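Readers of this paper often ask what the protein records in our data store actually look like. An entry from our holdings is shown next, in its original layout:
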Amino acid sequence: MSCLILRNMLACVLLLVLWKGPSTAVAVEYGQVPDNITVLEGENVTLRCRIDVEVTHKAWLNRSSILFAGEDKWTLDPRVSLVNSNSSDYTIQIENVAVADEGLYLCSLQARNKPHVSLVYLIVQVPARIVNISQDVSLNEGGNVNLFCLAEGRPEPTVTWKASKYGLMSEGEFLDITEIKRHQAEEFECITNNGVLQPDIRRVKVTVNYPPTITDVKNLSSAQLGKTALLRCEAMAVPTATFEWFKDDHRPVESDNTLRIKNEKTRSLLLFTNVTEKHYGNYTCFASNRLGATNASMLLLRPEAAYSGGVSDGRSVNGLGLWLGLSACVLLKA
């Protein structure tokens, strides 16, 4: 055991004396300084020492220990094996290379009572990968968003945040958005790259919640007796708005054999399949979610009457009272 420790110490001293900086190569030529060997983590690498003189002793060493002395294996690492040992070639192989294998390797030869040394510096690369990233985020409009994306790799990778609507957003692991607006809601891409294999890409979805805004109301057909008619109310909101219809004295409108309500994701349709006298009047569309509510009014009139309609500005006494009452109910439920 003491002999092994002594030899390892001598190997370390020899490396320190002879090493003049990193240098590696696919083949380590006798009597010349080789290029670096670059290998991906997990691959196999061959270190070759070519011999053009008669040698009496030869050995492969790394930074801290003797790997092979002649054909005798000194290292306990099962991944290291002797591939060739003859008068012209002295080659070892390391399987499943790990980051810890990076560093200086030395082929030492004794020829004509003189030492000869060839050096190789092994560089182990690791593809960039994302190791931790923010979860999907849901927040109310006006809030602040703080996203992070942590990556690792060798060489050190870059991290870039991108948004499909705006392109490049930020360089670095962190992306901060203050007082976010509804139009900024989307999936944000974190891209990490270090030039080894393909970039690693992950996405974070940011949802911005806001109260309903009625964007359009329209009387889409004439209201003739016995004919069909349609009223439409469109609203944008996150979460999606719930629609309700009210008529004149604020009674909720309900579907029957002459009237049907069709609610879709961003709009509600009031379909009259057979217009009667009772259908004429003022209709109010009420859109709400947990963040608030809004309404809009429109008229369904006889053909001879002047038609007017549009988004309510809140100055109608009946419309205002209805809106305030229903808004209070929505907020109490939230």
Notes: The longest strand covers residues 114-133. Helices lie at 2-18, 317-333.
